[in-house]
Each structure stands twice: as structure tokens, then as C-alpha cells.
Write a sequence for this structure.
């Protein structure tokens, strides 16, 4: 696929290449198992090896480095069939700060598998934010298997957002595990809209292992058609003054099915964890409010769901 | 003022409605005249909110006898959004919270367009600073009073022909109340017929005409001062059982 350019992959994910292909934006653009382009900024190193089915990348943000603009990563498979396996080892060293904006694009997929295994370390007082947006086509032929193991050291902050609200999901199994040490903070958010026969499985777990650590797990899901969504979020508080919250909201339409299993476990009497889950159709009061302003039921429903997933 | 000013715009004709086996509206007849601020007043449980919900055609309030006529045509078979597109809307006693939606999105939905200046103007009319609210989420981070004022702003932006305001003073402070009253006057000023559902003498005084209902029946209608006196003197000590008919009173 040597005729595919970085700009092609970027454009397929809805990005204007001119916004990203600039000197001050670090980036890594990968199509299938080929690195189409990369660019670094001071303090950021990327060691990439192309494998038979993807890439193996080690990304390091050196201690004390503050990367001013979000690093852009783009992973894509543009043909109808393909396998892409991404191995990421990310190390945000002590005191460093970086945010990553990742796009995963499979616009023509009929039989595409995208697997990602990430091992992430956020150092002492470091900050790492990762926003991943998926752009899929309307045929549902994608299997997405993201898996991450995250450790956040003392005073570090980790935030991840996963968004797939355009196109068919296909099948998705999210499996994230995060451990927070003393005074570390983590937030994991997923926003996904499923339709047709999509299957969404989310398993996120957080372990608040250090004193004063904090964590939030949020899942916002909308399913319609025959889609299924199953959310299992687990938050374990082991240390004194650890605080956490698990939140799951799912809107179900047509013949779709949604389940939510929030598990909260407290192993220290000075820790505190809460959870809430709401699954059902669109709230009738919200719906009738918008309809009383003149929106038809379909448009009102779309607006409400767009709010939930925003 | 529109040509229709002073003419009947909305008629509730012999409407009865049962909910849970109980008669809530009992052969109710009310004519609302165009371009005025009307009050529908009564004690808790009199059927006021049920009347508003029935006029709006909300789910659970559609199976009534009698008819509702808007601008000379029945709206009985119309859905909520069809009634809204004809020009009727409702402000709830407890406005909905919208997870994730911005205030601007609600205003744009009401005006069916993305005119940011018009949205800002509507917020100013209810005493809210547009810069602080347009991009703010319309969720649980807003107080009840803020949600009420934002709902009124969305109605101002919508420019309906008739608005039903259900207990507009519920859950808000005195300062916010003055903004609500000002918005009512603004609505009238833009030609909207305002129908206020209330049991508050303070709110009642903002209206020009009032209809007193009890046990789902219209028992008195007239000027605000007259109804206010009757409401305070007669309804307060009453047990609200076996309400007299309008005919018996007059």
C-alpha cells in the first residue's frame, strides 16, 4: 500500500492534514504495518519497529518535558480487509506533561481487525492525557480490541477518553486496567454509539492503591437496532482517603440490549467509592421538552443522544 | 399587536380527563384570548397542570373527551411537536436536565436555527449573561432557578403564539422571580398569549385575566383582583370537595 500518503489516512479520519502536518505538532501516522510519517519535538522520542502485522512503538517523554501541543497519532486500515496490531509502550517520565490525540480510521472495513496493546507508565507528578477517536464506515466490518495496562506514580495524572460516535462499531472489546499510587489521579471515559448488530464490551478497572488517590470511570453508551452493549467497570479502593466514582449511562432503542455491572470494592475503612448506573430509553421529560419546542421525535432523540455522547 | 389580538385563540371545550380512574378535568370550558396574560389558578390538585399538559398533548394526557381548538381548528389529534409547530409550547414546573447538551443547543433547537445573537438576546431577557451561559452544560450543575430562566429564554427564542407556564415561581428566589415576570411581559410584548398556571397570589397579580378551577371544574373567571380576592377568601378555607359549578356561583 505504498501509494497511500499520510494525508490520505488523516483525511479519512476527518482531519485537515494542514492542521497536523506542521513543525510544532509531533505525530506518528501508521497505515496497516507501515509508518507513513513521523515527526518529533524536543523531549519526545519515538522508537518504532514495523512488524508483520503492525508496529511496535516505544514512546518516551523525558523527565520535566512539557509538550505544548497535542501529539497526533493516526492508525488506519483503508482497504476493506486487513489486520493491524499496535504495540505501544509509553513512558511519561517524572514531571513531564503530554497529551495525545489519536485517530483510528477504518472507513471501508468489511473484515478488519485492529488490536492495540498499550503499556503505559505515568511518572511521579507527570501528566498524560490520551484522547482516541474512532472513525468507522457504515458496514460494521471492524473488530477493535484495545487493551491497556496503566500505572500512575505518586502525584501523577492520567486521563483517557475513547470516542466512537460516527459509523458502525462492529465489534469492540475495551479492556483497560489502571493502578494509581499515592495522590495519583485517573479518569477513564468511553463514549460509544452502536447500531445494527454491533457488539460493545467494555471492561475498565481502576485500582486506587495509594493514599489520597482518586479515580473516575465513566461510560456513556447509546445502542439501537440489534446492537448490544455490556459494560463492566470495577473500581477498587485499597488505601486511606482514596476516592472514586463509577458512572454508566446507556440509552437503548429499538431491539438493542444494554447491561451495566458496576463493581466497587473498598478495602480500607477510610476510603470511599460511589457508583451510579442508568439504562433505558430516552428520558421522556427531555424528549417532550424538545418536542414542545417543535422538534419531531427523531430529531429530539438524536439531540439528546448527542448530548450524552458529547 | 397582531390582528388576532383580543380574539379567542385557544378554546378548551367541554374537556374531561380521567387519570388512574379519577376524574381530573370535569367538563372544562375556557376561552383564552389572544395577546393577554391569563392565569389559571387553583389549589394543589385542582387540575391546573393537567390542563396545561392536556393542551400541550403530552403522553398520558391525550385520551380526553371534548375538544381543544387552536386558531379555529381542533388540535386534539396532533402530537406534541405538531402542536408546537402550530405555535403552542409549555414551560414545565420542573424543567428537564440535559446531560451533555449546551444551553446554546437548547436555544438553537427552540429557534430551529443557529442564530447566536438571537440566543444571546433571549438569555439577556431573562437576566442571564450570555457569555457565561451559552456554552455551559444544561445539566445538574445549573440551579433550579437557572434552568427555569433558560427554559423561558428558549421559549422567548422560539416566539410561540401561546405559552403555558406551569408554576413559574416554583423553586426560585425573589430576584429570579422578577426576571420571570419580566420575561412574561416580553412574551406578551412579542404577541405571545401567556397562560400561567399558579396557586401563588404574587404570580396571579401579573396576569390580566384569571380562571379559577377546583376539582377539575371552572368555578370562577374574571379580572385578576376579583379572582385573587375570591381565591384567598374562599379557596383557602375550603375543603375542595364538591366544588360548585360556575353556573351555581353566577
Amino acid at each position: 500500500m505504498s501509494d497511500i500518503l499520510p494525508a490520505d489516512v488523516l483525511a479519512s479520519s476527518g482531519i485537515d492534514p494542514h492542521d497536523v502536518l506542521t513543525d510544532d505538532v509531533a505525530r506518528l501516522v501508521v497505515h496497516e504495518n507501515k509508518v507513513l510519517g513521523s515527526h518529533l519535538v524536543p523531549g519526545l522520542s519515538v522508537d518504532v519497529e514495523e512488524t508483520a502485522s503492525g508496529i511496535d512503538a516505544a514512546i518516551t517523554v523525558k523527565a520535566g518535558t512539557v509538550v505544548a501541543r497535542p501529539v497526533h497519532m493516526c492508525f488506519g486500515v483503508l482497504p476493506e480487509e486487513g489486520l493491524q496490531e499496535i504495540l505501544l509502550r509509553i513512558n511519561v517520565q517524572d514531571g513531564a506533561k503530554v497529551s495525545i490525540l489519536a485517530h483510528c480510521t477504518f472507513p471501508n472495513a468489511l473484515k478488519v481487525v485492529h488490536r492495540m496493546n498499550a503499556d503505559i507508565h505515568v511518572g511521579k507528578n507527570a501528566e498524560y492525557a490520551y484522547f482516541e477517536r474512532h472513525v468507522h464506515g457504515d458496514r460494521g466490518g471492524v473488530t477493535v480490541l484495545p487493551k491497556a495496562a496503566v500505572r500512575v506514580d505518586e502525584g501523577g495524572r492520567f486521563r483517557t477518553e475513547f470516542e466512537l460516535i460516527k459509523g458502525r462499531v462492529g465489534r469492540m472489546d475495551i479492556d483497560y486496567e489502571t493502578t494509581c499510587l499515592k495522590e495519583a489521579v485517573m479518569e477513564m471515559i468511553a463514549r460509544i454509539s452502536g447500531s445494527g448488530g454491533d457488539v460493545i464490551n467494555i471492561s475498565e478497572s481502576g485500582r486506587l492503591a495509594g493514599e489520597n488517590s482518586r479515580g473516575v470511570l465513566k461510560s456513556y453508551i447509546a445502542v439501537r437496532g440489534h446492537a448490544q452493549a455490556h459494560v463492566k467497570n470495577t473500581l477498587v479502593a485499597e488505601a486511606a482517603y482514596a476516592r472514586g466514582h463509577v458512572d454508566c449511562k446507556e440509552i437503548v432503542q429499538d431491539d438493542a440490549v444494554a447491561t451495566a455491572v458496576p463493581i466497587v470494592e473498598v478495602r480500607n475503612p477510610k476510603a470511599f467509592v460511589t457508583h451510579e448506573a442508568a439504562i433505558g430509553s430516552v428520558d421522556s421529560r427531555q424528549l417532550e421538552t424538545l418536542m414542545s419546542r417543535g422538534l419531531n421525535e427523531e430529531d429530539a432523540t438524536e439531540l439528546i443522544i448527542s448530548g450524552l455522547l458529547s | 399587536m397582531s390582528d388576532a389580538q383580543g380574539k379567542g385563540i385557544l378554546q378548551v371545550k367541554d374537556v374531561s380527563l380521567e387519570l388512574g380512574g379519577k376524574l381530573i378535568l370535569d367538563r372544562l370550558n375556557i376561552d383564552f384570548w389572544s395577546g393577554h396574560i391569563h392565569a389559571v389558578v387553583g389549589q394543589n390538585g385542582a387540575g391546573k397542570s393537567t390542563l396545561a399538559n392536556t393542551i400541550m398533548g403530552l403522553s398520558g394526557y391525550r385520551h380526553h373527551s371534548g375538544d381543544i381548538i387552536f386558531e379555529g381548528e381542533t388540535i386534539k389529534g396532533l402530537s406534541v411537536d405538531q402542536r408546537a409547530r402550530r405555535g403552542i409550547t409549555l414551560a414545565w414546573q420542573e424543567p428537564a436536565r440535559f446531560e451533555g447538551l449546551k444551553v446554546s443547543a437548547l436555544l438553537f433547537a427552540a429557534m430551529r436555527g443557529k442564530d447566536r445573537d438571537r440566543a444571546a438576546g433571549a438569555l439577556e431577557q431573562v437576566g442571564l449573561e450570555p457569555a457565561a451561559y451559552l456554552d455551559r452544560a444544561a445539566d445538574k450543575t445549573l440551579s433550579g432557578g437557572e434552568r427555569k430562566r433558560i427554559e423561558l429564554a428558549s421559549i422567548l427564542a422560539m416566539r410561540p403564539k401561546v405559552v403555558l407556564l406551569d408554576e413559574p415561581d416554583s423553586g426560585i428566589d425573589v430576584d429570579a422571580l422578577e426576571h420571570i415576570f419580566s420575561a412574561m411581559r416580553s412574551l406578551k410584548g412579542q404577541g405571545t398569549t401567556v397562560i400561567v398556571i399558579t396557586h401563588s397570589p404574587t404570580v396571579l397579580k401579573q396576569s390580566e385575566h384569571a380562571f379559577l378551577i377546583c376539582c377539575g371544574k371552572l368555578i370562577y373567571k374574571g379580572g385578576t383582583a376579583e379572582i385573587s380576592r375570591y381565591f384567598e377568601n374562599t379557596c383557602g378555607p375550603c375543603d375542595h370537595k364538591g366544588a360548585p359549578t360556575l353556573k351555581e356561583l353566577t
About this structure: Chain B has ten helices and ten strands. Residues 1-5 of chain B have pLDDT under 50 and may be disordered.
